[in-house]
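Board notes (copied after class):
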Amino acid sequence: MSTFVLSIIVLGLMGFIFAILLGLAADYFKVEVDPRVEEILKILPGANCGVCGYAGCRQFAESVVNGNAPISGCLVGKKAVADKIEKLMLK
């Protein structure tokens, strides 16, 4: 067998093995996210402005779910957004 064909086979096998290992690592290190965070992100305007005091909408949503931020913290969305978040948190 030529060196060229052998190197293609070896590299293909290595790629296949690394793909399996990466898939297993992704399952092992998977981070569970509270589904309420995703629902709050759908409600928020998504400006990522930081006016609420957090780095972005995701960090604000996580803080609301954890009880570290007030529901009315989004100054861009005002009362309409606060009311929707309150309904979601009361479920």
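Comment from the instructor: Helices lie at 3-28, 35-43, 57-66, 78-90. The chain has two domains: 1-30, 35-90.
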